[in-house]
Amino acid sequence: MKVCVGTIVHHPEDARIMHRQIRALLEAGHEVTYVAPFTHCNVTPIPEIRAIDVPRAVGLRRRGALSAARAALRRGSKDADLLLVHDMELLFALPRRRPPTVWDVHEDTVGALDTKPYLPASARRILPGLIQRIESRAERRLRLILAEASYRERFTGNHPVVPNTTYVPETPPPPPGANRIVYVGQLSEARGTLEMIELARRLRPHGIRLDLIGGADPQVRPMLRDAQREGLLDWFGYVPNNHALRMAEGALAGLSLLHDVPNYRHSLPTKIIEYMARGVPVVTTPLPLAASIVGRAACGMIVPYGDVDAVAQAVLRLRDDPERRTVMGSRGYSEARGQYHWPDQARDFVAHLEEWASRVPAPALRRVVPV
């Protein structure tokens, strides 16, 4: 099977797209053409794929990226058996003549509007209804894969859920250390960046440093640079997921200080699963799924939203109790290995695509929203 995979929004090394789904397709013996913003993100494509470079869609300036994506998807899907797109934006760039097409729904698109400060107030009023119309029309014309079971409420059909789990090492990772905490993922205000900077300030006298591993939204980059110059923390920028998780091993705790916003409220907290997979105790805010997973596995500590004092106290308690943090790390690893190992979902993911590729192509999607 030949599959064309496309994104203009996500980083080409996005964990779900590159390190899980594309890797699963390659390991199953399929050929992959990958349309992604390689040059923009300074990424060299792996030799196992056929790469087509496109501009990245950033902020409000997306017209050029969409135009380039339209031509790239036409070229990439010309001899493909299946087209798999990862952005709502690409629904406007689908070729008229195309193979069976799948949209992988990554997020609560309406809920995510609260995390995009660059949007003007007028757009925030109009976009929810527009997005719902786009999703409804896409559901009638395409196959859908959902990253969260909670996304089913937005659609009328029974679409398969492919969760954002992770690769869990076969052998247990090293035990947690005593002088380093870590965060892996995109950095933004809604993801708790300002709280983490203040946390680093409070923990520095205790000899505990903070490692931040991930790209950052423009709004928080100046604060991160200032904190790094002050010596409060180490910010490594974007690191491919597999390397980032190896960097997290041996940390005293992994942080997930997400705010209570709609886009996070009912999502599987992938970073928490990733910390667990690497034997790192979790410190998380009480988002429902996060609290449920950490509480059930007894692999970390739950702190109130925005309460830096509570986070600092949780970290210090773990620092002062080596046995407790070692047990938490071990419990988290066992839970992740038993319940959240990506290869267990990869087989179903590949099987869905193989089944859809063998069917008659869906009708051409000329417009997503009627004029």
Give a short synopsis of this structure:
With 371 residues, the protein is an alpha/beta fold. It has helices at residues 15-27, 63-76, 121-141, 193-203, 221-229, 241-248, 262-265, 270-277, 288-297, 308-319, 322-339, 342-357, and strands spanning 2-6, 31-36, 50-53, 82-85, 101-105, 143-146, 180-184, 209-213, 233-235, 253-256, 282-284, 300-302. Helix 1 links the parallel strand 1 and strand 2 (31-36).
List the keywords.
371 residues; alpha/beta; Rossmann fold; six-stranded parallel beta sheet; 12 helices; 39% helix; globular; disordered C terminus; transferase; glycosyltransferase; glycosyltransferase activity; EC 2.4.-.-
Strand order, sheet with most strands: 3-2-1-4-5-6
Compressed to H and E, one letter per element, the order equals EHEEHEEHEEHEHEHEHHEHEHHH
**Low-pLDDT regions:** 361-371
Helical content stands at: 25-40%
**Largest sheet, described in full?**
6 strands, parallel
Task: Using the coordinates above, name the CATH class of the largest domain.
Answer: Alpha Beta
Your description of this structure?
This protein folds into two domains: 2-163 and 343-357, Rossmann fold; 180-340, 3-Layer(aba) Sandwich (Rossmann fold). The model is unreliable at 361-371 (pLDDT under 50). A six-stranded parallel beta sheet has the order 3-2-1-4-5-6, with helices on both faces. The chain is of the alpha/beta class. It has helices spanning 15-27, 63-76, 121-141, 193-203, 221-229, 241-248, 262-265, 270-277, 288-297, 308-319, 322-339, 342-357, and strands at 2-6, 31-36, 50-53, 82-85, 101-105, 143-146, 180-184, 209-213, 233-235, 253-256, 282-284, 300-302. Helices cover 39% and strands 14% of the residues. Helix 1 packs across helix 12 (342-357). The chain has twelve helices and twelve strands.
